[in-house]
Amino acid sequence: MNRLTTTLLTALAPISWGSTYFVASELLPPDRPLFTGAMRALPAGLLLIALSRTLPKGEWWWKSAVLGTLNIGAFFPLLFLSAYRLPGGVAAVLGSAGPLFVVGLAALLLGERARLRTVLAAVAAAFGVSMVVLTAEAELDLIGVIAGVVSSASMGAGTVMTKRWGRPEGVGPLAVTGWQLTAGGLVIIPLAVLIEGAPPALDGNAFLGYGYMMLINTGIAYWLWFRGIGRLSATSVTLLGPLSPLTAAVIGWAALGQALSPVQLVGMAIAFGATVIGQLPGRTPRVPQKTFSSAEGIDRNVSMDLSNAEVRR
Questions:
Q1: I need a labelling partner for 159 at 20 to 30 A (CA). Which of 84, 118, 152, 311 fits?
Q2: Residue 138: helix, strand or coil by DSSP?
Q3: Distances from the Cα of 43 to the Cαs of 51, 151, 187, 207, in angstroms?
Q4: How far apart are the C-alpha atoms of 169 and 191, rounded to whole Å?
Q5: Torsion sign (Cα): 112, 116, 117, 121
Q6: Could you tell me the sign of the dihedral formed by the alpha carbons of 276, 75, 257, 208, in that order?
Q7: Is residue 55 classed as helix, strand or coil in its secondary structure?
Q8: CA gap 250, 260 in Å, rounded
């Protein structure tokens, strides 16, 4: 599978996440973000483990717990806390800063060079998202801002560590995704019970919404996301993240009748352009070829023949 196809498939994950607000507001019980997070993660994780029929072994028990906490267990509650204490636009902008965390961590832990183009693309994407979602009435709340920043850092660290640790030999992304979702869901459940109490009563719309969130929005989306991390650079994958708030804005316009101003349209173009630029492969440095005189060429060919003979032995 070529790079373009892999990138397009990975992009389906943040596009799916952009539908979260619409599904939550139209189909799910109100004011139950932690219960929703647990319902997204744990059933999807158990289903993927059942499909892969593979459990962690050895060090992958604690690695899965760490990755599941960073990508799911800590990320979901902090994201919801930020969303509840801040206007949606501010929370979305803080979330769009995630690529900057990944650029720094990838350079530190993965040795991925922080190219100027990548940094500028990450900044431009965050700026474009801010044009789409911020309003003049937006107010800041310190706890909400801290939660938003830490949630972005948690997801960024999870992305980088997922790339750094890779997968056990012979284990596919389906199983690893299941491990992380299960671990993350188990982290969220005690918080949901402690803070929100007993589960709410569910009607037909709620079952439909949770079914979509579990299967499409989480199970398939995170499988595509972690699969992409394994095949692309960490910075390339995380720069697909701004597609989520852009998708949310488009759904709000198409399904909820929310108007898009010229400024928002310009912001969408900037964020989308930055996302595309962030996917362009870096230049491969050219290695200068040395020219040999005829005598040098003969010596070089003899040396190569001797080396090949040693290999054959």
A1: 84
A2: coil
A3: 12, 22, 13, 13
A4: 34
A5: positive
A6: positive
A7: coil
A8: 9
Sign (positive or negative) of CA dihedral 11, 12, 18, 24 = negative
Which distant-in-sequence residues (6+ apart) come within 8 Å of 207 by Cβ?
Answer: none
> Cα 172 from chain centroid?
18
122/102 Cα distance (integer angstroms): 10
Assign residue 136 a region (left: φ > 0; alpha: ψ between -120 and 50; beta: otherwise): alpha
Among the ranges given (53-62, 206-215, 221-230, 294-303), the one the predictor scored with the smallest mean pLDDT: 294-303
Which residues, 6+ apart, have CB-to-CB distance to 231 below 8 Å?
Answer: 1, 6
Question: Which tokens in the block code for residue 278?
Answer: 């962030």
Residues 6+ apart with CB under 8 A from 126: 93, 96, 97, 99, 100, 242
d(CA 116, CA 306): 45
Whole-angstrom distance, CA of residue 237 vs CA of residue 163: 10
Distances (CA, A) of 301 to 30, 81, 162, 313: 75, 67, 44, 19
Quickly count: other Cβ atoms within 10 Å of residue 12's Cβ.
17
pLDDT at position 139 = 66
> pLDDT per residue over 137-171, tens digit each?
556 678 888 888 898 899 999 999 999 999 999 99
DSSP for residue 69:
I
- How many residues are given for the chain? 313
What distance lies between CA 305 and its chain's CA centroid? Answer: 49
d(CA 98, CA 109): 16
Are 274 and 96 in contact by the 8 Å Cβ rule? The answer is no
Question: Minimum mean pLDDT among 4-8, 102-106, 172-176, 279-283: which range?
Answer: 279-283
